[in-house]
Design goal:
52% helix, binds zinc ion, mainly alpha, 419 residues, elongated, 4% strand
């Protein structure tokens, strides 16, 4: 796929995610690279089309290497030579002048991206041992033997030989036999011993032809998804979040609340919601300055609005009391999530607590917007009641809390969750 098409598709995806299709240009709050990370790494798990495209191209490589007749393979062999069917490692391969774009893409995967990640994950599985080169194909260990033992390879009299040719059967006993250009020195004998230790004592020969095996799947067959995730690990830098934070990112998606609510807390954890501070830092002029809607003289940052503002503090403390928890508001949202769910005695209760954690954050945001845009008034009691009602509704509608009456939920949610 041409790079310009990939770019266009990503633009459409981005506009869809950040809601800019009809409403003009919107702020992309999180970089596309981060959005494409798996959820357990703090992303949204959106597929990166460039990597999907590469994975699909690599599938052609895999199919070419499979035995069996296919007309399209014959056409390629006629056009580009027999190597088209047997080459695994294409780095440094010079392309003929006139090639189709598709073939250029397929050959260019390694050349362009400076990686032999296809070859790296391919390995020969022995059948009769007649089509796997002893030194040059990778069939034991993580590299071809010529790379693992370059000295011995240079001395071998049979550099192109197949595995079966190295297996000598005399008097019914199997053994590995290698022939050398000259007698080995002592230190080379030591290398040979290491090689002998690596080689299998018994080879379960079969009548079947040797075949390629894909190391990223248990059954050895290539899959586009395994390639995709592998490419993700190759091309993405390590996440800027620590292990504890990533643990929280992995957990939030399992909460029984609407996905828009989880997406909101996801943005909040990344400090990417449109608080006044965040809008100002993106160069947006605000009427009324940076002040929090609940208190004068304090800037509206994410941590202030949702944790350290008096208003938020009152709400959280009321929620803690409602759940019977003795907690002090910790310094950040990750810890708050951990304290909150960590206080639950078992899995059922933990799920309920995660539901309430999300609902509380959602209602804090909603009440802020009501005050800012709809002339709402500050009413702590009402927000707390709304959190109880909304969490009860979401929990029941998703069948994720046991059936209970609303007054029971208000009275003791822990008891309801344990049913
Ligand atoms: Zn405030």
């Amino acid at each position: 796929m041409p790079a310009v098409v990939i770019k266009k598709i990503i633009r459409i995806q981005r506009e869809f995610l950040w809601g800019g299709v009809k409403g003009g240009k919107k702020i992309s709050w999180v970089s596309w690279k981060e959005v494409c990370r798996p959820r357990s790494e703090g992303g949204l798990g959106v597929r990166d089309v460039a990597k999907v495209n590469l994975s699909l191209l690599i599938k052609w490589r895999w199919r070419l290497l499979q035995s069996g007749y296919a007309f399209w393979k014959e056409v390629l062999v006629a056009k580009y030579g027999i190597m088209a069917r047997f080459k695994v490692h294409w780095i440094g391969h010079a392309l003929p002048n006139r090639v189709s774009l598709w073939w250029k893409d397929i050959c260019g995967i390694d050349i362009r991206e400076d990686g032999s990640w296809f070859a790296r994950n391919m390995c020969r599985k022995l059948g009769n041992g007649n089509s796997t080169r002893f030194w040059l194909d990778r069939w034991i260990g993580s590299l071809p033997l010529s790379d693992q033992f370059p000295r011995l390879f240079s001395l071998s009299l049979n550099q192109q030989g197949m595995v079966r040719e190295f297996r000598d059967v005399r008097g019914g006993e199997d053994g590995w036999v290698m022939r050398w250009r000259r007698r080995l020195f002592v230190w080379e004998e030591e290398l040979l011993q290491r090689l002998q230790d690596l080689l299998p004592v018994d080879v379960p020969w079969s009548e079947a032809e040797d075949r390629w095996s894909w190391r990223l799947e248990e059954d050895g067959s290539f899959s586009v998804s395994s390639m995709y995730w592998y490419l993700g690990s190759v091309f993405s830098q390590a996440s800027s979040f620590n292990a504890q934070e990533l643990w929280v990112f992995g957990k939030i998606w399992k909460s029984p609340v609407p996905s828009k609510v989880i997406a909101f807390t996801w943005k909040l954890l990344r400090n990417r919601i449109p608080t006044r501070c965040n809008l100002a830092s993106r160069g947006i002029q605000l009427i009324g300055g940076l002040d929090c809607v609940h208190c004068v003289g304090r800037e509206e940052s994410g941590t202030h609005l949702f944790m350290f503002c008096d208003f938020a503090g009152q709400i959280w403390n009321a929620i803690f009391r409602w759940l019977g928890l003795v907690l002090v508001i910790p310094p950040n949202f990750f810890l708050l999530f951990e304290c909150f769910t960590g206080a639950a005695a078992n899995k059922k209760i933990r799920k309920g607590y995660a539901l309430i954690w999300h609902t509380t954050i959602w209602m804090l945001w909603k009440s802020r917007n009501d005050i800012m845009f709809s002339n709402g008034v500050i009413d702590v009691e009402k927000v707390i009641d709304d959190i109880k009602l909304l969490s009860w509704r979401w929990g029941l509608s998703r069948h994720s809390i046991p059936v209970c009456l609303f007054y029971e939920w208000c009275w003791d949610p822990g008891l309801c969750l344990q049913r």
